[in-house]
Each structure stands twice: as C-alpha cells, then as structure tokens.
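Figure S4 source data
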Amino acid sequence: MTKRLYILSVMPLALALALAGGCAERKSPHDPAGDVHPADWMKSTSEDFHGRKIAAVGLISCGECHGEDYRGEDHGGTSCYQCHDGPSGHPEGYLLSSSANYHGDVVATEGTGGCTECHGEDYRGKEHGGTSCYYCHNGPSGHPREAVWLKYSVRFYGGGHNQATVTRGLEDCARCHGENFNGGTSGQSCNTCHPSESGHPATGFVDRGNAFHGDRYDTNGENYCAACHGADLRGGYTNVTCWDCHNGPSGHPDEGFLDPAHANFHGLEATIRGLDECATCHGADFSGGNTGRSCFECHDGPSGHPAAGWLQSGHEDFHAERLIATGLNYCAGCHGADFTG
C-alpha cells in the first residue's frame, strides 16, 4: 500500500475519533461562552423563569458566571444589575404600584415564596443585610405600616388602603379577608371599621365627620366612588346606587336640596363648605361649567340671592325669613363674620 493510500484509509478513523472526543468534552452548564439559560429564562409565567429558579435553589449558581457581586466581571460584563435594582435583587419599579414589576402584584399572583429566599421565613431579614419586610409592611398582614395604611389621603407606593382599593379593586382585599370581607385567612374582618354592606367608615361618612364622603370625593375624584359603585355610579360591586341619595349625575342630595328648612339645603352647604364647591361643577363664574346649568337661573347674579322675592316681604324667599330659619351664619357665608362685605 502506498503512503498516499495509507493516509487516505486512516483519515475516516481519525475523524471519527476526533468527533467522539469532541462529544465527550461536553460544555459546562455554566460556561459563560454558551447560552446556558433556558429559552423562557426571562418569562415570569414560565417554570424556567430565573426568579422561580433562584427562589428554589438560591443564588450560588448565578455567582459562578456573574461573579460574587453579580456585576458580571467573569461573564462578558453582563451584570445582573442591568435589570435588577442593585444588591436587593428586586427589579426596577418594584415599589411602584403602577409598574409592571410591582412586588404587590407578584406576591398576589405567586405567593411569598420568592420573598422568603432572601428575607427569611419570618420576613425579618435572614441573610439579607437585616432588611426586614416589616420596615415598610405592618407585620404579617403585608399592609404598609398602620399610620400610612389607615390614613385615606396618603399616597405611599400605592397609598392608604382606600387608594389601593381605587387603583387595584376589592379583589386584592378579598384574597386575605375573604369574599365577604369577614376575615378570610387573615382573621381580620374589614367590617370592624367598615359597615358590613357599604364598606364606608362606620362614623362620619354621611354626617360631615372626618370621613365625610363629599370631602373624599373632592380629594380623590369620581374614581373613589366608582371603585365600588361602578363607572356610572349605579351600583357596581355593591349593587347600591349613589342615586339613592344623590339627585342623579349632579351629585346634589336627592331630598331637601332646594328646601331652606332642610339639612340638605344647598345654601347651608355653600355656607359650610364655601362656594368653591359650587364652582367645581358650575364653573368659576357659576354660569354653567361642565354641568351646563347656570346658578343664575335661580340666583340673582353674583350676589347668590334668589332671583325673585329676596327683598319682597311675605315672599317665601324673603331674606328675613331665611335669616330666621337658618341664622346669621347664612348671611356671614358671603358677607363676612362682621357683615361688612
């Protein structure tokens, strides 16, 4: 056999051995040069989602490629912090209720297993630099601290519980407090503070107390009511329409709004709460605003007095009769405490 033929005859064998050797040298699953992550590594709904894997097995495997500080020195500069908010491991926006990464949504969907990996079974910090979930949350309830959670006007990463209800709905409450809000798995009934049906505070909501619904409407807007009563305010989640008490879309009370002797008389409302309340709907000049109804249809121009009978003795709108029925505060509302203007 010539030398040339010998070489040609052994080449297939050499090639086969080389290929076999290559197959035997499998790449490490943590080889930075390879695409080691599963296809759905970044998809939060997948079983292969990296957050779910880390919660199950810890961060050690991440450090093999991304470095002990996770900044990527051994991994082509790919730092975990390109997506995650520093050493906490939380994604950017995890404290903002408007963010797709809001941690409250993650917990509501997937439970607290991902929290315990770093914060410990009791959420008090474990090996996470002592960072306790209770720095912000009011113990095992998961609510923000009580001073924040129970103050309706506060906006703290989603705000007081009324703000959370407006922006996120009552389903979040029902997850822990039960579908009827009588306690559920939390053992804490919402009805301790809220009447069982309406969900309104037990006192001061209707009688101009510190929880007066008119003030809350002014502060929060129509969505505050719509969260429970529906976008058209005809019942929604509660099946109780606002129009049981209010005179349709105007928002005025249904009873007594035009009766000077009634507690709902609009003149008293203007005296107590000021004319800015009227201007909210009727416009700064009271000529209609977004209602299309001018206050001057009944009132005598900017004075606010009724158009007819205000100076006519014996007329039902005679100002002296109003004074007898309502007291001097009725006049002082516009003319000042000393009635000089």
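Figure S5 source data
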Amino acid sequence: MGIIQSMTRKRADAAETQRQGRKEKRNSSTAAFASTNKAASQSPSPQSSEVSSVLSEPQQLDPSKLKIRLTENPKTVDPPEKLKFGQNFTDHMLVVSYDPVSGWSDPEIKPYEPLILDPACSVLHYCTTIFEGMKAYIGPDGKPRLFRPQMNMRRMEGSVARLALPPIDGDAILELIKRFVNIEKRWIPNAPDYSLYLRPTVIGTRPMLGVHASDHCTFFLIASPCGPYFPNGLRPVSLLGVSDHVRAWPGGTGGQKLGLNYAPGFLPQKAAAARGYEQVLWLFGDERRVTEAGAMNLFVVVQREDGAGHDVLTAPLDGTILPGVTRNSCLALAADARFAEDAGLGRLYVKEEAYTMRDLVSWARAGRLSEVFCVGTAAVVCAVNRIGWPEGLKELGEEPADAPPKPAPGEGVTEDGMKCGFDGTDIFVETYEGGLGPVARALRTKILRIQEGRETHEWGVVCE
C-alpha cells in the first residue's frame, strides 16, 4: 500500500472512529491547545479548571443540536416542465463548520444565502473541496426517499480523508440530510424522472495562505429540483475519445469526488462539442484504455463469441475510476440472474476489467457490440450511439482504404447491413427504439422503480 493510500485509509478510519463516538486526538494545534488547558487545570482556580475541561475536547458533530431557522419569504415552486438541472434552488441550506479548537459547530438549517469566506481561505487557493451528488424522490405514499445514501456518505468520508480535511461523520451528516429533505419536501417534483437533486459539499476554510492541509472546514448542503439531466429524453449521445488530456492517473485522485477533478475537463468538453460530440470519452495510456465518459461511468454490452449470452463490462476500480453509486447498482443488478430473467435479457456475465479502443473497434467490426451506455446520479442511464476516434486508423496501423464507407447520419448502421461498426473515424453502436438498448433499459427501469418508491427494496431509504 502506498504512502498516500495509507494516509487516506488512516483518515477514513478516523471518521469511522468518530462515528462510534470514541475520542480521537486531533491535529497538532488541537493537541497543543488541549495540553495548555491541562496545565491550566492544575491551577488552584476552580474557574480555570472548569473552562479547561470544556475546551480540551473539540465538539463532535451532533445532529441533536440542529438549529432550524425557516425563511420568512418562501419561493414559488416552478412546475416540473420549467425546471432545468441545477438552476433553481430550494428555500434553505444546511451548514455546519469545524475548527480545531472548538470542533464542530451546531448544525443549522437556514434560508439559502451566499457563503461568507475569508479571501485567504484554503478552498479559494488550493481547491480543497469535495462534493457528493444525491437525489430525493417522492414515493406513492407521499414520503421522501433517498437512494443508497450510505454509499454516498462512505465515499464522502474517503474524499475528505484524501484531501486531509478534518474527518467527518457520514452517519451524522446523513441524519441531517434526512431532516433537511423533510423540510424541503414541497420542492420534490411528483412526476416520473423528476427529483430533488442534493449537493452535499465540504470546503477547506483555513483562513491563511501556505501549502498546508486545511484544519478548518465547512459542510453545506443545497438542493435543486430537477428533471431529466438530458432534456432530449432518452436520445443516445455521442462521445469523442480523448487521449491528449487525462482525467485521472494511477496514484492520483480519480477515485474520489473532488472538485479539482472536474474543472480540467471543461476545455476538452468544449473541444468535443465543437466537433459535434456531446461528451468526452477519457482514454488512458498508450494502449488507449477506456475509462469514463464525461463525469459518468461507462458500460459496454458485448455478445459472447459463442452467442450464448452477453458480457457486461465496465472499467475496474483501480484508483482512476470513480466508485459511482449507480455504477455499483448496475453491477449488482446485472449479476443477479433473477433480474436478467425477469427482464428477458438472457444470460449476463458481469466483468470489471480493462478494455481498450482496439477492443471496441474489434467488437464493433464483428457485430458483437450490442450496447454502450453511461451511468451516474444525474443522468441515471444514458445510451451511446457513436464514439469518435479520429486517429483510430493510424493507431491501428491501417490505411483509409481499409475502412468501410461511413453510414448515413443518425442511422448507426454500416453499409454492409451491420448494426455496429467502425468507419475509420467513428465507432457506431446499434440504436434501439426508445433510445435505450435492452440491458440499459432494464437497469434504468429497475433503478427508477426503487428510487421512486414504486418497488420496495433495501436501497430505497425513507427520510423519517
């Protein structure tokens, strides 16, 4: 285990210890402060002893101390058809802060308002920020629900540890999130494919310059009612394979949900859009290994060579891939023989293994590339019908004459009648009526049924 991984694990363990209520030593400044108070407590002054006993242990994150201050001017909730992702926000926000002397403040739900930050604070200079993406849904019983929120909390704890921010108790945060969702319940759209998007965020707020870990932080939660992430519905999207820019690398931070992982992708995304593609497909290494699509995990469905079933592949969690909640859910469902049988999918063989652009071309040329789709909290499941690889022929060592003619725009079918193929510039994937292939559609349907409370499942957590 590397030094960074070891340090990250230790900080994650600290969060676990915090959840169990055990007392942990803090950073050096806290220890020094406690030592000072201990010395003061040896003084004959009863008042000094009382003060030191109060201040020597920083306060733990305590949901029972939640303060609620509701807005006096509640906003009008827009109808679902007018909602755009991430542009409208609810009346309130949840905030709780940490400093090494006092520990965690009393959490507060208060009217939505700008944050006040010192210009020297860590997040503004060193990008010490992590976030999560979650959704709340209204079930048929009228109760709000979350989808596998414990996974988000464990990932949040790991992200916080990776940036050496003060450990955070995910279970305590989840309890506060549930309280917040109940208060903002009226903002959850009661319509299929609509939800209340939740953005839990932690920022480093150490108010001084210097390349050091932030021993101050603030957790805040904001929420936005939203409809489908892609407004055009289930229409498949196109990807452009990119290898001259890298999203993540071994030993880096691609396996955590850090703010610093996203901004470097904006420029390649704009370049892809200028070339007519909707998302970036991140490729890694000289072998052009397929990793993620935009900010989403990627799956491919490949017919087996003997024709007996399909392989469902996604890149392994090697530290460069974000351990997505939807990714994990799709893997678990696809590996369930009962799910595949009920959906009429035949035999599915789930694989978490590396694959390359050469593999995609080979499968497409053989007519075996059945589906490609992206998954994530925002989009849930989104099909892919075209993957651009402009330098593909060169990297394959082929001449343009070796490639078949380009299919007609939007058809996704090659001239020889195959439903998938490679024309020297693009890999075409079979398209299906309604936008999604059978595996992607079955996964999306199952996940949405659980999220919206139309099916009882342990993954659906009622906010009570």
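Residues 329 and 447 are 8 Å apart (CA to CA). DSSP finds twelve helices and 20 strands in the chain.
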